[in-house]
Fold this protein.
Amino acid sequence: MSTNPYRFAEGTAVVTGAASGIGENLAYGLAVRGSNLVLLDRDGGRLDAVASTIRGRHPGLSVSTLVVDLADRTALDAAAQQILAEHPQITLLVNNAGVALGGDFSRLTLDEFDWVMDINFHAPVRLTHHLLPALTAQPGGHLVNVSSLFGLIAPPGQSAYCASKFGIRGFSEVLRSELAQGGTGVTTVHPGGIKTRIASDARVGVNIPADEAEQGKRDFAKLLTIPPEKAAEQIIDGIEHRRARVLIGMSAKIPDVLARLFPANSVTVFSRLVGAAGAAQKKLPSGAGAARR
Amino acid sequence: MTTGTSRGPLTAGAPAPPTHPSPPGDLATVTVRGARIRVRTSGDPAAPPVLLLHGIGRSLEDWDAQHERLSGTHRVISTDLAGFGLSDRLPGPATFEQLADGAVGVLDAIGERRPVHLMGNSLGGAVAMLVLTRAPERVATLTLVDAAGFGSEVTVALRVLGIPFVGARLLTRIDRAAARRTERAIFLDDAFVTEERVSFALEVAARADQAAVFADIARELGTVRGVRPQWRAALLAEVARRPRPTLAVWGERDIILPGHHLRAALAAIPHARSHVFARCGHMPQIERADAFADLALTFLRDAAREPNV
């Protein structure tokens, strides 16, 4: 494995989902370190705003944008060809874009399931496949795949999301070994609860009642406590030091340990722990409870 | 072309000439409070003025490559900080304030009364910020190049020189090998460490004023633990009160002042624009002279269009 730190300055970084959340903050952090940027998102308006902010702050950088819906394979393939034509050398690819979908598997349609798999799993695989020649043209490049807390543990109601995030984790960990010889690093990121738009933007299965869906979104959103700029800084640190895995937030670190100790029922153990902690906190005098936060 | 070595550029291609054989313009000596101080001027005297300040233990020659590149559109002025280079020290103890006032004194001496585009490398960056706080009407924009003032980490060599008596003694004993080591620490690419550069560094180091001022300033700059936080905090607070269009740049491979100080600079001066140069040590204005000039000229052009930061 490459022991050299990743060099950001004057490299070219491709970031998906760059119009908001972790991707947007990754773009800012990479620009501060001198990386030229190719930013992808389906939301052209927000993406333009991010790009012009960066151009204003860093007049020496090249910042280009591509508006593409990663669920559309044809559009994604075309975007990849355009990136290759304009940037024969890429030093960093961050597969960050992701979507969420709530609801029990029994009530999901296959179209809904496929939508999550297309964006969270097939799109990063396709983009990586297309850009790999440019990424590995010289040693020193780096690939980041953003998995999830739910790429470590598998709670009910997250069948599509977990399938996609476990899948991308496996893909990413294999590539880490395969690309090491050529001097390209790979980092798999498991965010646990970053305050982004993923919960509010989550699609709801057509068969899921609205009130249940809202409750699901609220539960998901409760987990999101870490500001995305902090998550982006941790990912950038992981890239610089070529870390295999970046776990962000205690809500990712504790389940990671549990998933190793209790591979089959880590979710049960985790929810018992969380339940016990919550119950314990409720029994504390109010002053002590407030002091914890 | 080799790979796997820790030094040297990653891409092939001849580096820019390490020193400009004869930079454009005139080298003159002016008198400031009785001290003889060197100043180089180039470009149309009517063009917008740029003042270039070097780092600790250095000289105006650190900006030679930029005279050539900036003087097409600007009046370019580089000067020795008082007591450094081949110039005299000012009367009284050497302090940061004295260096800043000396630079303004040079502008007075050459009759340059307009606000200048101030660019400072290393300690010269801190001096540039100090000029802004002491004579704000003389400063149009700030360009900070691997500038001191944004963090405590500094090369151990400078920390040792800040130790009372020890530093002064060490500074009187600089030999050719020590001078070469310093140049090698400044540049990433050893092609810039020419015999000519080492010889000139020795000539500068041999001057009595230079050793004494160097020791005083190194002590003011910091202690053996690093750059002192007190003057940094006070200076940055003062700079924030007088916002100017600001460009902060760094060489990614700087081992004198580490690159993460740039993030601190952007936190202290949130409106600043920034850039990081790849394959570059402590002096981008020399090691990446063309890229630096392109960026600086773009910044100055934009600042002229929108003067309100």
User: Anything to note?
Assistant: Confidence is low (pLDDT under 50) at residues 1-18 of chain B. The longest helix of chain B spans residues 289-305. The interface with chain A takes residues 3, 10, 252, 259, 262-263, 266, 273-280, 291, 294-295, 298-299, 302 of chain B (CB under 8 Å). DSSP finds twelve helices and ten strands in chain B.
